[in-house]
Specification:
Radius of gyration: 22 Å
Helix content: over 70%
Low-confidence stretches: none
Structural class: mainly alpha
Largest sheet: 2 strands, antiparallel
Number of domains: 1
Number of strands: 2
Strand order of the largest sheet: 1-2
Mean pLDDT: 80
Length: 263
């Protein structure tokens, strides 16, 4: 039952979308990029509310820092006061978890599709999941997996996609936590010189997610990593239009100063 739901809600629709794009463009790499952009576009109404909630939370950071100073002697009371503040402004700190769950599900489904498309899939096996006769492949069709210098069925031999994916993920993570420096200063005033759970999670995600992207990029087929890279780039653009540069703002300001000095 679960396999039926999984295949018919995620895997087969993604497979049909990728096949349709491949029939149009004749390139598996370009098809993966365009399909990723389409999927992320469809998910904008789901993702945007949580991004706006994160922006609200960032805007409240001065008040959060005041609470940290006021209740530094009692972390449990501090957490309670923070939750009251979030509730007062209609913020759910866990709202971003839904985004991550959706992205992981789509990633796993796309990985399954790319495996069917490149690693162990015959034309007959692919045709079993294709809805429309016009999209089905002729018997014995071999689908080329070359894209630029990559073989999309195998890991990137030069790790270029993996490193670029990690860099973009760091930028995306940095954009979501613009007040890390202020929060760290507030944390130093607590007895244990440590911050609340939210701060710890932010710090971990800032570095762990890029590291995970690199590890994934080194081990998984390049076609899957191409999806991760494209979706991360989309996330950066989406974050910019919804909540601005965030934590990148100081870096951008410093870069502008350096450019002015060099002129």
């Amino acid at each position: 039952m679960l396999a039926f739901i999984w295949n018919n809600i995620l895997v087969n629709p993604i497979l049909n979308g990728l096949v349709a794009l491949y029939q149009i463009f004749g390139s598996l790499g370009i098809s993966i990029i365009i399909l990723t952009l389409i999927i992320r576009g469809i998910l904008v109404p789901v993702v945007a509310p949580s991004l706006k909630a994160m922006k609200k939370q960032r805007d409240l950071q001065p008040e959060i820092n005041k609470l940290k100073e006021k209740y530094s002697y009692d972390k449990q009371l501090l957490a309670q006061k923070q939750m009251e503040l979030f509730k007062q402004h209609g913020i759910n700190p866990m709202s971003g978890c839904l985004n991550q769950v959706i992205m992981i599900l789509v990633l796993i489904a796309l990985y399954n599709v790319i495996r069917k498309f490149t690693l162990n899939g015959t034309a007959e096996e692919l045709n079993n999941g294709i809805y429309f006769t016009a999209l089905k492949f002729a018997e014995g069709t071999i689908i080329p997996t070359k894209f630029l210098y990559l073989d999309l069925a195998k890991p990137d031999p030069y790790f270029g996609l993996a490193l670029l994916s990690g860099l973009l993920q760091f930028i995306a993570s940095k954009m979501t936590i613009p007040y890390v420096e202020l929060a760290e200063k507030a944390a130093e005033k607590t007895p244990a010189k440590s911050d609340d759970i939210a701060m710890a999670m932010q710090q971990q995600s800032l570095y762990m997610m890029p590291i995970m992207n690199v590890i994934i990029g080194v081990t998984l087929p390049a076609g899957v990593v191409l999806y991760i890279l494209t979706t991360t780039l989309f996330t950066i653009v989406q974050n910019y239009f919804i909540s601005g540069l965030g934590g990148l703002k100081p870096w951008v300001a410093k870069a502008k100063k350096l450019l002015r000095k060099n002129k």
